[in-house]
Amino acid sequence: MRGRLALAGFVVLVIVAAIAFVIFLTRSGPTVPTSGDLDAQALAIERQLLCPQCTNERLDVCTLAICNDMKSLIRSRLEAGAPPDDIVLYFRNRYGDRILRQIPREGFNLVLFGWVGGSLALVALAGGAFLYRLRRPAAARPAADDTGSPADEHWLDAEIEREP
Amino acid sequence: MNLLATLGAAAVLTAFAAALFAVGASVYGLRAGHLRAQLAARRAIPAIAGLLTLAIALLGYALLTNDFSIAHVASVSSREMEPRFKWASLYSGQPGSLLFWTWTMSLFLAAFVRLSVPRLPWCAPHAVATAGAVLAAFLFALAFFASPFRVSAYLPADGVGLNPLLVDPGMLIHPPFLLSGLVSTSVPFTLGAAVLLAGRMDGTWLRHARAWALVSFLVLSVGNMLGGWWAYTVLGWGGYWGWDPVENSAILPLLPMIAFLHTLMVQERRGMLKLWNLVLVEASFALAVFGTFNVRSGLVSSVHSFAQSEIGPYFLVLVGLTVIASLVLITWRMPGLRADVELESLASRETGMLLNSYVMTAIALVVLGATLFPVFSELFDGSRITVSPPFYNDVVGPLLIALLALMALGVVLPWRGTARGTLLRRLRAPAIFVVAAMLALAALGMRDRFALAGTGAAIALGFVTTREYVLGTRGLRRATGRPWFAAFAALFARDQRRYGGYMVHLGIAVMAVAVIGSNIYQQQTRAAVAPGESFQVGAYTLTYNRLFAERPGRNGIEVEVKADVTVRRGDDVVATLEPGRRTFTNFPQQPVAIVAIDGSFTRDLYVFMQGWDESLTAEFQAFLNPLVRWLWLGGAIYVLGTRVALAPRRAPERAAVLAPDGALERV
Predict the structure, then answer these.
(1) pLDDT tens sequence across B426-480
(2) Which end of chain B is more exposed for a tag (fewer CB within 10 A), N or C?
(3) B454 Cβ under 8 Å from any chain A Cβ
């Protein structure tokens, strides 16, 4: 019985981790409107890119000259009818992956995603094993300090019972 | 010879010698049973605090009197700086921040030696030796690698001044809180190490550890919140948290500390998780030292790296030593760290708290890996990748939602478990309420699944926490006949730890809703407009009236160029804002945005000016950030709750009056 309960706890833990991971994997990246307001399209593209000189600063809020040039280029390419994805690709080819805010899920970057998955799996497995050990009979000694708690809990249940 | 610099350097060197003495005398005193030696070692720790206080006072005096012969003073201060910013200069830059770090650490450890060590005689020499060793490690760096009292070869006429980003009132309080919070993790670490060294594995250390961990949690949380507020009001990008490597370094030690504050209750009540609690306190300090290394090494690029220098590798060695020493100690004492009792039910509060600590650990591992990934990317792939907020939002976001849900579940689950029927009764009302609230939100147009799941989890947490207050107050009122308010106040008097903790949870629920609202439903507009022209953001019309310049003539500011902007909603004038840009005489390439915010509880209208041309046409960025004010309000509730929870635990005989048997009158 205890073994089954421990197993159930472990399974729940893995499921929680898996759900979190799956949500992460299936979440789509930011989308750029392909029609409508040119300013909104330009801003959406800029928000996908980083300043090539600053640290972790979005292109849209950076005021360096190089960023102003990049913003002008985005606008002129949009006016010329270039699709947003092509514009992002242009900057990626020019500056490399470091220009992208959304880290690409390919190449060496997969190590990072592997680290995430590995961390979740490690915590789930080690945590599950630890939980399993706690479920095993230990020395028959009294609990360290149980005072106060049970009365409080029973009282809470009594109050919930009174709920309509 | 500069007398002041000589005195300062001598104070630091003497403090280093005193730290070594504390270690040596403790070890000798313990081995030889020499009580006088133990007492002398104990007194060395407050002496170090006194010496470093003298060093801080001397450096402060040098800053106030513009003693530019001291290199640190010349590099971070200038004649025209206001005295309050000279205070900020003290802890900016490498040597100053390291002195401030070591000084606050010595204060914490001196308070620990004064308040807790005498009550833990069985591990007193071990604690003093550990405290001395920790202080010696930092004093060594301060004395030999990064002395703030180094005298320049020549005397400049004026100093360079403070980094422009630091010329802000937020800098007067944010770094002191953050640095103090990081160093405060040294106290639970010292206590944990002392317990392991002494080999007494019962829970008597936990009462002291809890108090110090709560102080650390409070100070570090306030430091992080103030950092968010500073980023929001100064950096000019419309947000408050950018998952920058230095920001990550500041929250990493907080995660195991929060986990410890919960799992220690499991050890206190049930005699379980002895090993895990020690792992958490040791990890928290190791991560704080890692943060120091991260900020100072320049290994990971950051917008916050004001204090980079060559001593980064020294701190990497320190991180390694901390981790190795902790692992060795824990492995050595492993046989004594077994649980007293077995876990009776998986549907119990102890399981909830343990799972919560697992999620915290997972978040810490993910953030640590992502923070360091650019280094490995450059090393093995040759390209320096930036791990930006979208990655963290995608990965840490779901984990934080899981954490919120587990927090809610933890409040509902009773200690030691309960019958299935009772548990279902406890879960029924929150489940119905949360499902109804999520359906209502979806019907109102909330479609983003992250927003729905996160808000649902935050509502669940808010509901179960509020219910604890309502039911507790109602029960007390029924049992004692007191009015509602008096019964509510008595609830806190009865168990401050518990109800203070719930208040922290409530603050987190409020902050979670604010974070979701302000991130997912942010609106942004950019417009280049001539004087007299308008642009739109959401329902607001912003009219750019004119551009004007001011020369404050202080703190290195050369000129502040501001725009006069009128905000209207329909025909009503809502606000007049003055966004602008500030340039500095000594940092012409580093202008700083002047952010203008019109705030309310529904939204912040956040405006900054990106630039202007010869025709005075100015380019603005305007954001509508929903619910940001709730973030600060939630933070205030969180801080207040922590303060309430700092109360010492009641003795068992007083706890016995909790029973609803009429004995409440004895409170």
Answers:
(1) 888 999 999 999 999 999 988 888 899 999 999 999 999 999 999 989 988 888 8
(2) N
(3) no
CATH fold group of domain A38-101: Helicase, Ruva Protein; domain 3 (1.10.8)
Domain count, chain B: 4
In-domain check, residue B561? yes
Retrieve residue B650's tokens: 């009641």
Last-in-domain residue among B167, B186, B207: B167
A31 inside 8 A of chain B by CB:
no
Domain ranges of chain A: 38-101
pLDDT in tens, B479-534: 888 898 899 988 888 888 899 999 999 999 999 999 999 999 999 998 999 999 99
Give, to the nearest 10 degrees, the angle between helix B274-297 and helix B349-381: 30
- What's the domain range around B562? 523-628
Using the beta-carbon criterion (under 8 Å), do A153 and B415 form an inter-chain contact?
yes
Q: With a CB-CB cutoff of 8 Å, which residues 23-62 of chain B face chain A?
A: none
Residue B107 CA: distances (Å) to CA of A29, B41, B135, B183: 48, 16, 11, 10
Note whether B5 contacts A: Cβ–Cβ < 8 A. no
Q: What are phi and psi of B230, to 5 degrees?
A: -65, -45
Q: Give the chain A residue nearest B378 (alpha carbons).
A: A108
> Collapsing DSSP states into helix, strand and coil, what is residue B126?
helix
Min Cα distance A31 → chain B (Å) is 13
Which among A4, A74, A122, A153 is the top mutation candidate for probing chain B, defined by the most B β-carbons within 10 Å of its own β-carbon?
A153
B383 contacts A97 by C-beta, under 8 angstroms = yes
